[in-house]
Design a protein that fits this description.
Helix content: 10-25%
Shape: elongated
Structural class: alpha+beta
Strand order of the largest sheet: 6-7-8-3-9-10
Largest sheet: 6 strands, mixed
Strand content: 25-35%
Number of strands: 20
Length: about 350
Amino acid sequence: MGSVWLEHVSKKYDDSTVVSDVNLIIEDKEFIALVGPSGCGKSTTLRMIAGLEEITEGKIFIDDIIVNDVPPKDRDIAMVFQNYALYPHMSVYENLAFGLKMRKYPKQEIQQRVHQAASILGIEEMLERKPKALSGGQRQRVALGRAIVRKPKVFLFDEPLSNLDANLRVQMRTEISRLHKQIETTMIYVTHDQIEAMSMGDRIVVMHKGIVQQVDSPLSIYNKPANKFVAGFIGSPTMNFFDGRLIKLDTLLFEETSKHFSLPIHPRDFERLSLCEVTLGIRPEHISIKPQNDYAYKIPALIQITEPVGNEIFVYFTLIQSSTQYISRIAADIKPETGKMSDLYFDTSKLHFFDNSTGKTL
């Protein structure tokens, strides 16, 4: 078993709170991704689970056992860091075997575990090489292998791919996901890259300023963000936001603050919304050049920049009498002219509404 439970866990440095009242249950064999901007407390949370940081308040359980005072070496966890932390004077085999030798494992078992890990990661032919003879991706595989040979209850990853180039990052993402399915061990993965979190995690923990904002599946977090921060952080390009208010004329409408436009509200949202000041959010893919459905609403806009990115185009635009720039994602077969007015269609069935004062989703 490899379940992890954080109960009211906080971390303070002098008068500064970097992690505040985290409550989280991670099930055995689950892949959890901790994501958030730099300084949000995700790595500190991981290091507290590992025992590398002392807890100021709260309790951490691994398999129903409180580990607050248990040394890192006795927590049955293995950690993979951002830097590979390989011993440069040792071969790949020696790097993989080092931790087992320190724990006095029998030579035959060490050999069996090392070759098994090397086989899983496809590095059997590299066992006699030194780290300097390996590429970045190969070194990261060795770092993973050093964790695998331990056969721990829990794997902890602290931004392990941030030193790799874009192609290698994609490759290693799939390798780690495949590894999780193969060895069926609990994994907790820290990253600032929301694409890594979305593509790898069974669930995502979004953190901001030391506080957990939302815990849910990737799709639920994308479609039903708990607040404005989560909505803006998850998704690339980021969600568009418009300040305004809800008003009632013939029907319920959103009216933008400067009255540059108004949008009718989808009938299903009538009951949950009341007349008040709100922030409207809409993702770039829900603003198009052509109507997407019967709930598409036309708004004139000035096209500022178009940015082709392969099978789609990012369109940056402003509204009439406004200097604020927004973004839309459209199919690559339609390319509007820059510097010209164009009608854009907002899908009113895909709108998000946030409380102006708290940022919470309405």
